[in-house]
Amino acid sequence: MGSIKRAFISITRNSGKSFILLLVVFLLGNVMAGAVSVYRAIDLTEKNIYEQTNVMAVIDLDYDRMNREVEDKIITEEQYYKIQELQEYRPTPEIIKKIGALPTLKSFDYSSGLFFWQRDSASKNTGEELKPVYAEGAGYHIMKTTQFTEPVDFLKNKVELVSGRFFSDEEINNAVPVIIVSKAFAELNSLQVGSFATFDTVIYKELEFDVPEDQVAELFYAEENVAEKIATDFEIIGIYEPAAESTGKQSRTSMVNTEQVEQELSNLMYTPNAIWEYIVEMNERLNELHHPGYNEGNSAPQYETFFILNNYNDIEKFRAEAEPLLPDYNKLTFNTDFVKPYESSMKSMQSIASMILYIAIGATVITLALVVLLFLRDRKQEMGIYISLGEKKLKVVWQVFLEVLMVFIVAVSLSLVTGNLAASSISERMVENQIAAAQERELTQARESREMQPDSMSILHNMGYSDDYTAEDFITGYGVALDGTVALMFYLAGFLVIVVSTTLPAIYILRLNPKKILME
Fold first, then answer.
1. What pLDDT does 511 receive?
2. Could you give the CA distance from residue 453 to residue 441 in angstroms, rounded to a whole number?
3. Other Cβ atoms within 10 Å of 37 Cβ, number
4. Does the global pTM surpass 0.70?
């Protein structure tokens, strides 16, 4: 009779003991299955979130370092504020482009807002003053610059192109004066694709000190006070509309109504960075010409910059390559940094799951070994007869191993299902509690912060990337699933448990003396 058949007969003949063994393994297996499932679920949640989302980085001043140095009297408070203004502490387009060329990046962009007052702009086609899309007030035109051929607002579906085209590589790189305007702005000013809008760079003379205060603005912006004016003709190459999804989303998450959001989006114009930099440089030259020393006390241009990495695993490599290129007191902030508290909470749960798994494995090994050994003591006569009839002791050990394995497979298969169900309901509540606790800690730390500091994520918000990582992503993305990997991990762990737990019974069998047993 083969070992497998004999093992099966032994299980059915000792059904009571087999059931006790199955029950023990089933109960401990539930704990093991739940722990394995939770560990795997957390891994998958983090992986899915990071893989489905663009990993972003922005350049930001290191305010923590600056605050520490003020407290340690390394720098003064005056220097603290100067650092935020001086050119030497602000990344230049050359530095940004150098970082943007690193192989760990998928793409990058930098942007700034170029403001043109209403009185300084006109349509070259009609000669009439251009009217901004504002419900009230004089308002102004805002040119949003970009290094992308398709600006980020379009990529993120904040706005959508309804006619014309996006920028070409030549226009992006060679300071070609082209713009994309809103449909509302085009209709208000009788413009279309191919029309030209003229914007003036104006330098004003200094006023006398004895000018009455209530007349300063009127006299300063008077036509006769213009020192120099240079017109730039921008060709309209595209017309867009605010996306309904974008205005609805923003109005739900802010105190701004849909109409105001549409007005703000409709007043934007998009133009390449290169032409903006040309206009800024020209403006600085003219100011220095008419007002010597003007640029010395003037704030340096400030850019909203972001980098999109190839994948999550490139973060540390990119940080190591990019930060040495930045000016002093600058650092990189990643959008993943703002979910570290939530990730830490998930990791703590994963640690708990690992600890429970190790304890459950240890308990299963010890319990299983003792139960099997106890049952073998009652079957000592049976084992002695097998060995007396010429059966090798190793074959008897193999039979016992098969008996345990058969019971174990049934118990594990049952516990795999029930353990996952139990782990799903319990761990999801634990995740919600952990995330809620992390959010509360973040709020407490924000309230206890030494002083309000600029939020790096506002840069991403302005560029349309603020919604990439949230605590809710971890909650909604978390789920315990019984997949092939979980089952394989569990069965492999179970097999190792059987091997280890049958070691002690095997030693007991190998030490049996059949003559002594039969003489008892």
1. 67
2. 18
3. 27
4. no
